[in-house]
Amino acid sequence: MYGFEALTFNIHAGYLEAIVRGHRAGLLTAADYNNLCQCETLDDIKMHLSATEYGPYLQNEPSPLHTTTIVEKCTLKLVDDYKHMLCQATEPLSTFLEYITYGHMIDNVVLIVTGTLHERDVQELLEKCHPLGMFDSIATLAVAQNMRELYRLVLVDTPLAPYFSECITSEDLDDMNIEIMRNTLYKAYLEDFYRFCQKLGGATAEIMSDLLSFEADRRAVNISINSIGTELTRDDRKKLYSNFGLFYPYGHEELAVCEDIDQVRGVMEKYPPYQSIFSKLSYGESQMLDKAFYEEEVKRLCLAFEQQFHYGVFFAYMRLREQEIRNLMWISECVAQNQKSRVHDSVVFIF
Amino acid sequence: MERRFVDNLPPMDLMRSEKMTSVQLIIPVESAHRAVSYLGEVGLLQFRDLNADKSPFQRTFVNQVKRCAEMSRKLRFFKDQISKASLLSSAHPVIQSDIELEELERRLAEHENELMEMNANGEKLRLSYNELLEFKLVLQKAVGFLVSSGSHAVSERELDENVYSKDDYVETASLLEQEMRSGRSDQSGLRFISGIICKSKVLRFERILFRATRGNMLFNQASADEEIMDPVSSEMVEKTVFVVFFSGEQAKTKILKICEAFGANFYPVPEDITKQRQITREVSSRLGELEATLDAGMRHRNKALASINIHLAKWISMVRREKAVYDILNMLNFDVTKKCLVGEGWCPIFAKNQIQAALQRATFDSNSQVGIIFHVMDAVESPPTYFRTNKFTNAFQEIVDAYGVARYQEANPSVYTVVTFPFLFAVMFGDWGHGICLLLGALVLIARESKLGTRKLGSFMEMLYGGRYVLLLMSLFSIYCGLIYNEFFSVPFHIFGGSAYKCRETSCGDAKTTGLVKYQDPYPFGVDPSWRGSRSELPFLNSLKMKMSILLGVAQMNLGIILSYFNGRFFGSSLDIRYQFVPQMIFLNSLFGYLSLLIITKWCTGSQADLYHVIIYMFLSPTDDLGENQLFWGQRPLQIILLLLALIAVPWMLFPKPFILKRLHTEL
Q: Does any CB of chain A come closer than 8 Å to the CB of residue B208?
C-alpha cells in the first residue's frame, strides 16, 4: 500500500538506495562548473576533474588529451556505477535498472544500422556505441538488409523484441525509415516502461510516471518540430506519439497538425507546467529549446531525490550523470576549440 | 606552601603538548625550493594555506605540479608493466647519487617511449603468431572434417575412387566427401569456410548463421587443442575450430560478414591432402621462427623493465617528495614586488634552532645573496597540539587521539593510559600461561622491529606491529594478574606454598558438602588454589572480581577528575575548579567512593552484609534501620549526610557555571 514502503523497502533495496544517494552527492556543483569554465586547456580540465569522483578514471591518461577521451572515461565511470548497482539488485529493482538501458540499446541499434547504410566499418561503429546499451550480437546488425531481417536475425533475442511488432515492414532501410523505426521503438519502450512502473505501484509509480510523462511530451514536441517540412504525414506523425503524458490525447491532436514552431509553442502554452519552458525563448527561436528542456528535466530529476523508498532515484541518478557528461563534453569542446565565450550556452547546472 | 610545591615540580614532557609559536618566513625565490625541501626533512613546521580561496590551477606552481603528476603517471605505468611481466620488485634500495627533476623527467620519457615501442612491436609479432597458430589449429581440425579420420594412410590415388564408405563417420559427412571428391576444384555446389572463433561465442554464432542462411548450412565444430593468448587482455582464450558448409554466392557474403561481426578469423584450407600436408609443414616451421623471435623480444623487454625496476622505488619516492614540495610552495604568497615568497605557520619552540639551521643551509646551498627571514609572529587562533612521542608512547598517543585530540596544552591522558590501558586489559585477560604466550609474541615483534618496519605488511600484521609495545605491556600485566587469579591455562598452581585449607578428615569425604577448614596462614599471593573446583568457587570469584573492578574503576574516575583540577590550575580558571571540580569530586566520592569504602570494610571485617541492599536502600529509604547490614557505627547518619551532599552537588555542577559565563560574555 502506498505510504508503507518505509517498512519493507530497505530489506532489499536499502543498500542500493544509500549507494545511489552517495553517488548523487558526488555530482559536480555549480562551483565546479565555474572553475571548469575558466580552464584554458584540456589539461586544466583534467587537473580539476582529478579532484572530483572522476579522478581515478582520468589519472592514467597521457598528456595530450582529446575531448573524446575525457567523455569516454567519464562514461566508463557511469557504466561502472551502473554495473555495480545491477549486480547487487534483486527483482524487481534489477528489471527496473535494465529498463533504464533500453533507450541506449535503441540508439545503438539505430547507429549501427545507419552506419552500415553509409558503408562504414563495423568495428568503428561499435566503438561509437554507448557502453550501457551494448548487447551480445550487436555486431550482426550490419548484416541485415531490411527490418524484417533485422528482427529475425538479431533483435529477437534482445529485450527490444516486443517493441518490434508495430514497425516490421518489408521495406528496405533508408534514412527516413530508420528514424521512424527509432521513434516507433522508443514509443513502445516508453509505454512498456510506464506500464511496468504502474505495476510496481507506490511512490515509484507516481514519481516515474511524472518523469516518463515529461519524457514522452518532450519527444512529442521534438518529433513535431523535426518533422515540419518533411514528407511525414499527419497520421504517421500521430502514430509516433506515446499514449500517455500530459499531451495525451488532445495535445497530440493539435501537435499533429502543427506546421511551424509558433504553432507548437501555442499548443504547449496551453499546459501550465510547460509554460515556463517557452517563456525563456523569444518567438521563432528553436536552438535554445533543447537547453530549456534539459533544464526542466534536471529540475524534475532533482525533485525525485526528495522522497525516499522508491526506485525513481536510480533513474534520476543515471539521467543526471548523463547530463553531467553532456556538460563536460560541451565544456571540453569549447575549451579545445577556443570558444570559451559560448561555454554557458549549453551547460545546465545541476545544483 | 603546597601550591609552591606543585608549581615547582619539573614539567612532564608528555603531560602537556609542546609550546608552539606562530612564525613567518620570507624566502627569496631562488632558495625557495631548497628551503622547503630541507624544512620537509626536519618535519617540524606546519604551514598555513594562504591561498585557500584559489582554485588548484590558479596557483603559482601549477605547472610543476602537473609535471609531477605526469611523471607519477609514467611511474604507475612502469609499475603496472612490471607486475604484468611478473618481475619481483627489488627489496634492496640502491644507494645512488641524486638526480635532478628535469633529468628524471627526461629519462622517464625515454623509458616510456622505449617501452611503448617494444610493446607495440611485441603486439604485432604476437598478432601474426596468433594468426599462424590459429591457421595450424584450423588445419589440424578441419582436416578431420574434410577427410575422415584414420585415413592418413590413404594415398592420393585412392581419393579418385568415387565409392567410399566409413562406418564411424556421420552419413551426411560421407555424402559430402563423395560430392567434393567427385568434382574437386571450382565447384558451384557445396563450398565451405573454415575458421576459428572464441569458444564463448560459438553458440550464438551458430544460431545467427542458421538464421541468416535459413537453415541451409552445416556447421561442424571441434575444440582447439591449444589456447591462444588474446593480445588485448593478455589472457589465454579457448578457441573452437569450425567449418561451415553452404551453397550459393549470397550465402557466402552473408557468412563472411557474420564472421567479421563476431571476430572470427577464417583461413582457407585446401582440399587436397598433399597441399594440406605441405601447408602444415610450412606453417609449423614459420611458427617455430616466430616463437623464437617473440621470445627474444620478450627477454629484451624484461631486461629493460628490470633495469627500470632497480630505480623504481627511489624514483617514486622522489616524485612524491617533489610534488609535496610544490604543494607547500603553492600555499605561500608570491610577493611580486619583493621577489620573494611569504609563508606563515606553526612550529614548536624547541625546534626553532633546527629550523634556523635548515634555512641557513638552504641559503648557502642555493648561493643566494639574501638570507631567509624567520621571525615570530602573533596569531589570533589557538595553536595546534603537538606531542613529541617516541616509538613506545606513539601507540598509546594514537589510541587516546582516536577518542579526541587534546586542546593546546591540556593535560594529556596518554601519560596514564600507558599503564591503565594494558592493566585493565590484563584484569580481563588474567591468565599467566596465556600471558607468557602473548609475551613471547610481543618480544618476537619487537626483536624484528627494524626488519618489519621497512616491509609492507598486510592490514592485520600492520595493526599488530604498530601495537607491539602495547602488547608487551599487556602481556606483562597479564602475567601479574594471572598470578593473582592463580590461573595457568585455567589450572591453579601451588607456586607460593601450600594451600591454607585442608579437609576435616583424611578421607576428604565431606569436602564437597561441608567444605574445608582453614588451618594455617592464608596463601601469600593470589587466590588460594583450593578454590578451583569447589562448590562456592563461582560466587567467591565473581564477588572478588566485581569488587576489585569497582575499586579500580572508581580510582580511575577520580584520577580523571583530579586531572581536570590540574587543567584548571594551569589555565588559571578558578571557575572550573570551584564549579566543576569540587562538585564532581563530591558527587563521585559520596556515592561510589562510599561504595569503595564499604567494600574495603567488608573485606577487612569479614561481615556478612549485603552491599547491594545497603546501596539501594540508601536511596530508597535512608532513614530505615540497617539491621544486619550495618558495617560500622554511625553508618546510617553518614549515609544520610552523603546522600544530601550528592543531591546538592548536582545543581552545583550544572547551573552556576553557564550563568556566570553568560554574564562574563555580555559584559565584554
A: yes
Cis peptide before A249 (omega within 30 of 0): yes
A–B CB contacts, 8 A cutoff, strictly below? 49
Q: What is the pLDDT of residue B224?
A: 81
Task: Please give the angle made by the CA atoms of B340, B341 and B347, to the nearest 5 degrees.
Answer: 135
Q: Of A168, A196, A194, A268, nearest to A225 (Cα)?
A: A268
- What mean pLDDT is reported for chain B? 84
| Maximum Cα–Cα distance across chain A | 56
Q: What is the pLDDT of residues A179-199, one digit of tens each?
A: 888 888 899 999 999 999 999
| Site of grid cell 536510480 | A314
Rounded to two decimals, the pTM is 0.72
Q: Which three cell numbers stand for residue A70?
A: 575525457
| Interface test mutation site (partner A, options B211, B254, B327, max chain A beta carbons within 10 A) | B211
**B194: phi then psi, degrees, rounded to nearest 5:** -115, 145
Q: How far does B318 lie from chain A, in Å, by closest CA?
A: 19
Cell of A349: 547546472
pLDDT one-digit tens code per residue, B383-409: 999 998 888 999 999 999 999 998 898
Say whether residue B262 is in contact with chain A using an 8 A CB cutoff: yes
Is the pLDDT at B183 greater than 70, yes or no? Answer: no
For residues B335 and A15, give the distance between their C-alpha atoms in angstroms, rounded to a whole number: 52
Closest-CA distance, B299 to chain A, in angstroms, reads 26
CB contact under 8 A, A153 and B212: yes
Query: Of the candidates A267, A294, A179, which has an alpha carbon nearest to the alpha carbon of residue A226?
Result: A179
ipTM, interface predicted TM-score of the complex: 0.75
SS3 of chain A: the string is CCCCHHHHHHHHHHHHHHHHHHHHHCCCCHHHHHHHHCCCCHHHHHHHHCCCCCHHHHCCCCCCCCHHHHHHHHHHHHHHHHHHHHHHCCCCHHHHHHHHHHHHHHHHHHHHHHHHHCCCCHHHHHHHCCHHHCCHHHHHHHHCCEHHHHHHHCHHHCCCHHHHCCCCCCCECCHHHHHHHHHHHHHHHHHHHHHHHHHHCHHHHHHHHHHHHHHHHHHHHHHHHHCCCCCCCHHHHHHCCCCCCCCCCHHHHHHHCCCCHHHHHHHHHCCHHHHHHHHCCCCCCCHHHHHHHHHHHHHHHHHHCCCCCCCHHHHHHHHHHHHHHHHHHHHHHHHHCCCHHHHHHCCCCCC
Angle, CA A70 vertex, CA A66 and CA A73 arms, to 5°? 135
**Is the pLDDT reported for residue A213 higher than 70?**
yes
How far apart CA B320 and CA B339 sit, in angstroms, is: 27
Question: Rounded distance, CA A283 to CA B232, Å?
Answer: 54
Instruction: Let me know the angle formed at the C-alpha of B633 by B627 and B637, rounded to the nearest 5 degrees.
Output: 80
Looking at residue A162, its amino acid is: P
Which tens digits make up the pLDDT trace of B126-142? Answer: 888 888 888 888 888 77
